[in-house]
Amino acid sequence: MSAGRICSRVMATAWPNETVRVAAQRMAGNDVGTLVVVEPNGASRAVGIVTDRGIAVRCVAAGIDPATAPVSRIMTAQVQSVGEEAPIEGAVSRMATSGTRRLVVTDHRHAPVGILSLDHVLDLFTEEAASIRRLLEKQKPVYEVHADLRLAHPALAGGGGEGGDSHPDPRPRPDRHLGGGRVRSISRI
């Protein structure tokens, strides 16, 4: 899976010389928490990133007036980016080494095309883990299915055979020998 497949393509931008208040209003208008700061000459190259947390901590809490302060004063100028074709593992590694929760996703010309957040990655991993769980549940070992049937339908448990069962329990018992060794326990994944 590539960074470009799971990143948010809803991306708002800001210019370094516009005010923090204008940037915050753009965040509110686009319902985003991150703006990619691009060069004002239209080159469409990321020169910084500003987040709602950055506005709160670096501007408001620091006593800087958002109506007059330029975005360049509070933005993070060390933009961490990843190509849209990069594998998720590489993107997560980049996040870990740079200590950031967001990467600017770029196209082959290095122009920003999206934002990849740690939340996007965690959502993907959660979905993958749920798929694996469903697969494992569908492929429950046969002996567990037989045991579940006997528990659900007591009539299946009676009638002859070892221990009164017409269908002996296929699960190894601690007192049975298999292949010369004693089975002590059965664990379930």
Strand and helix map with partners:
Blueprint: H1 3-6, E1 12-14, H2 20-30, E2 34-38, E3 46-51, H3 52-60, H4 71-74, E4 81-83, H5 88-98, E5 102-106, E6 112-117, H6 118-138, H7 142-152, E7 177-178, E8 181-182
Parallel strand pairs: 1-2, 4-5
Antiparallel strand pairs: 2-3, 5-6, 7-8
Give an overview of the whole structure:
There is one protein chain. This protein is an alpha/beta fold. The protein is 38% helix and 17% strand. The chain has two domains: 3-127, CBS-domain; 142-173, no CATH class. The chain contains seven helices and eight strands; from the N terminus they run αβαββααβαββααββ. The protein is elongated, with a radius of gyration of 29 Å. The two termini are 26 Å apart. Residues 160-167 and 173-189 have low confidence and may be disordered.
What is the structure about, briefly put?
The protein is α/β, with parallel strands linked by helices. 38% of the residues lie in helices and 17% in strands.
Which CATH C-level class of the largest domain is it? Alpha Beta
Low-confidence residue ranges:
160-167, 173-189
Overall CATH architecture of the largest domain: Roll
Biggest sheet character? 3 strands, mixed
Whole-number mean pLDDT: 81
Strand-pairing-aware structural class: alpha/beta
What's the domain count? Answer: 2
Task: Give the termini distance in whole angstroms.
Answer: 26 Å
The SSE string, one letter per element, is HEHEEHHEHEEHHEE
What is the molecular shape?
A: elongated
CATH superfamily of the largest domain: CBS-domain
Radius of gyration: 29 Å
Named CATH topology of the largest domain: CBS-domain
Q: Helix share of residues?
A: 25-40%
